[in-house]
Amino acid sequence: MSNPSEYFKSAASVDNVIFGFDDTDLKVLLIRRGEEPFYGDWALPGDLIAPNENIITAANRILYDLTGLENVYLEQVMTFGEVDRHPKGRVFTIAYFSLVNIKRVFPKASSFANEVSWKTVSEVDQLAFDHLKIMNTCLSRLQTNLRLKPIGFELLPERFTLTELQQLYESVLRKELDKRNFRKKIIKMNIVKDLNVYQTGVAHRPARLYSFDEESYQQALKEGITFEI
After folding, report:
1. Are residues 117 and 26 in the same domain?
2. In Å, what is the CA distance from 182 to each residue of 150, 160, 163, 229?
């Protein structure tokens, strides 16, 4: 190491990928940047980590500063460190992702975010920095997790139909699922509770409403359930 000081001329940042579901499509929360670089472009809620901050503290602080969201569970995915990923210098970014119920959160733009908006994931094809790569990496993690454990219920209202549940899975996995097989698997796993009530105020034939049965799921885990859609 000929010049150790050269190794301390880099920065670290956090980028948050917040996914939500609006009954039909998987969404991602984006901000429109109000400063350079990439002024006016859509980006993930992210910023530099302060020298005296822990990483997870920074992740929560940055999310709150830019979108007003707080008390959101964040899961660390991976670190991105390509040499030229930031035009102002070497910046490593730690990516976090989260699942939220869109109807329960109310993001608002602040700090250098001029605007905040939910965008359909499948329609996002360009973002600032390498944020599209980061979003797609987190989407891949979500798709894997969704097949292995019932995290998708975090995106749904407390009461839902099996059709809404299937639409969620199809939106995240980006493929059509056989209706009969999907329902058979879900019912067989015994992780949803039939509430014995039906939808109201809908133009079509009302469907049965269900809720996620956390207690039954935990018991099933002890018995060796295999959660796979």
Report:
1. yes
2. 14, 15, 10, 7
Q: 3-class DSSP state for residue 211?
A: strand
Q: pLDDT tens-digit profile of 68-79?
A: 999 998 999 999
CA distances from 69 to 20, 104, 119, 229 (A): 13, 11, 17, 31
Where residue 183 sits, what CATH number does that domain have? Answer: 1.10.10.10
Beta bridge partners of 211: 193
Tens digit of pLDDT for each residue in 53-71?
A: 999 999 999 999 999 999 9
Clarify whether residues 120 and 201 are in a common domain.
Answer: no
Contact between 53 and 74 under an 8 Å Cβ cutoff? The reply is no
- CA 6/CA 143 separation, integer angstroms: 39
Question: Alpha carbon of 23 to those of 56, 108, 114, 135, 161: distances in Å?
Answer: 30, 21, 27, 21, 10
d(CA 168, CA 22): 9
Give this prediction's pTM: 0.88
Name which of 165, 229, 161 is nearest 200 in CA terms: 161
Strand partners, 148: none
Residue type (1 letter), 164:
E
Separation between Cα atoms, residue 41 and residue 13, nearest integer Å: 18
Domain that holds residue 166: 151-222
